[in-house]
Amino acid sequence: MSDAKGSLFEKESRNFIENIIVEDLTSGKHAHTITRFPPEPNGYLHIGHAKSICLNFGMSASNSGAVCHLRFDDTNPEKEEEEYVQSIISDVRWLGFDWGEHLYYASDYFDQIYTFATELVEKGLAYVDLQSGEKIREQRGNLKSPGENGPHREQSVAENLELFCKMKDGGFQDGEAILRAKIDMAHPNMNMRDPVLYRVRHIAHQRTGDKWCIYPMYDFIHPLSDALEGISHSLCTLEFEDHRPLYDWAVDNTSVAAKPRQIEFARLNINYSIMSKRKLLQLVEEKHVMGWDDPRMPTVSGMRRRGYTSESIRNFCETIGIAKNDNIIDFGLLEFHVRESLNKTAKRVMGVLEPLKVTITNWEEGRSMEIDAPFHPQDESFGSRTIKLEKTIYIEQSDFLKEPPSPRKWFRLGPDRSARLRYGAIIHCDEFIEDDQGNVIELKCHYVEDSFNGKTPEGMKKVKGIIHWVNASDAQEVEVKLYDRLFSVENPESDKEKSFLDFINPDSAKTLNALVEPEILKIPATEQIQFERMGYFVQDCKLSTSDKPVFNKIVGLRDSWAKVKG
Ligand code: ATP
Ligand code: MG
User: Fold this and answer.
1) What is the mean pLDDT of the chain?
2) Which residues does 117 contact at the CB level (< 8 Å), separation at least 6?
3) Which of 52, 105, 238 to mutate to test the pocket of ligand 1 (most atoms within 8 A of CB)?
């Protein structure tokens, strides 16, 4: 029976955050956790966010009574849009998580945040500064030298209250006034040198409309939103470590009831990829990709469109774990989990990506053989389909070499070489036909009598190579998109002289006209399938039409031929 406190207590190895939480639950500091995932709706979610989602929502599944909130940190109306809100909602759901009743918007707290700001002014802990931005920057000092107090710092509470009210009532233009915390202009942590709490922005907000012309800063509203929701552990990425003193200051100096604890963990970085929403937006706006959900994008929607399963992303996030130090994870690890996940569920079918015509010379004209082929060779529960074998078929161009290496190294076709057709007979290549450029355009082969059902006729050497194929008369034409890494270098952001755009992989998308067996088009378009030997594929939900199905390559199989090509 599971512990009443939940699976967190039974886990064999816990990360440092889970250890803190177990301590807090054991000591009775909290009865259960309340965590939150707080995206700013200014872009689509990426795989880094998925890590944070798995951590926060994962916590709510692992100790009884726990919940995880989804909260939109929508305090910056210039950059935020409803489209992003909707995409985030659908991505978190798709990842398999549920916030129940707990969907919140930081903008819903604007009234309360304003009251807390007023409270700080009344306590002499905040003041309105009317200096120019330039002047304020000058007074801030830098990491080596302390800042200095400005002239508005010693204004009376009454004056500050009046000015803050005037800010709220539209008495100032953008940039003319800010509300600042009164902490310490000489504080070694720059974030504590009288940070800005509110700024004037005469801009409508997507949810509150024209009600406000002042908006709270992230560093102020974030801790207070956490506290208002009774968040127990506010988990965020390492760049907020330096902001933690301000987080605590805001919670300690206002009359919010709860005292959430901020804990930082390392961001997820993946090689050949970028994780900044600003840069991802640039890729979209400048049309380097088809959109936020381009199958090459590191976004959740891109990965979903590509055909990744949510299970594979969750397992990936579980494997990489939670650490205190930044590091870069290999893209291959994510692909490993995608393969692992699809291996369990995908039907095996045949598709030829780069077709090469084969005429079976000793096959009677008009003869059509029906073969019952299982959708999964090891698992009967997948069922089977019927495929036809006739005189003309297509095989993969790469399964024939004019000058193959020795038969001990090359098990596929070549002049005077044999290979077995998957679920079919052994064929032997007697002749190849070339076009003017020397490209092989057709093979003439004969099939070996009595070699169906995996049999080898007496006296014949066992044929090791098994190749996939499609029957010419009923093969269906489809488009196949092969995607490679979006960037051609491991860290596209490390070169200070160049833009990350300079490292976009020019060969990251390739389109092929492929031939597939007709049964494939009867499988629901949303279902991932395996083209035997070629990898996992799924129909592209945006590009595919019933006239011209378009398949995305999700991920290759482990290249079983790498050894052979050696
Ligand atoms: P930007 O991409 O501009 O840095 P952001 O990704 O931090 O912005 P938010 O919407 O604020 O955007 O992120 C929501 C949550 O996701 C935050 O708690 C943040 O810490 C977390 N998060 C963002 N990027 C990553 C990442 N690469 N790895 C883990 N968590 C992340
Ligand atoms: Mg952020």
Assistant:
1) 95
2) 126, 164, 179, 197, 198, 216, 220
3) 52
Tell me if 361 sits within 8 A of 430, measured CB to CB.
yes
pTM for the model = 0.93
Q: Does the structure show a pLDDT above 70 at 4? A: no
Catalytic residue among 5, 168, 182, 277: 277
Ligand at minimal distance from the CA of 48 is 1
Give the domains, in start order, of the chain with CATH numbers: 7-265 (3.40.50.620), 270-348+478-565 (1.10.1160.10), 353-467 (2.40.240.10)
Question: Which residues' Cβ are closer than 6 Å to ligand 1?
Answer: 38-40, 48-49, 51-52, 236-237, 267-268, 275-278
User: From start to end of 304-457, where are the E strands?
Assistant: 327-329, 347-349, 351-352, 355-360, 369-374, 384-389, 392-396, 418-421, 426-434, 440-447
- Residues 535-564 have pLDDT tens digits of 999 999 999 998 999 999 999 998 433 333
Convert the pLDDT of each residue in 301-355 to its tens digit. Answer: 999 999 999 999 999 999 999 999 988 999 999 999 999 999 999 999 999 999 9
Distance from the alpha carbon of residue 36 to the mean position of ligand 1, in angstroms: 13
277 a catalytic residue:
yes
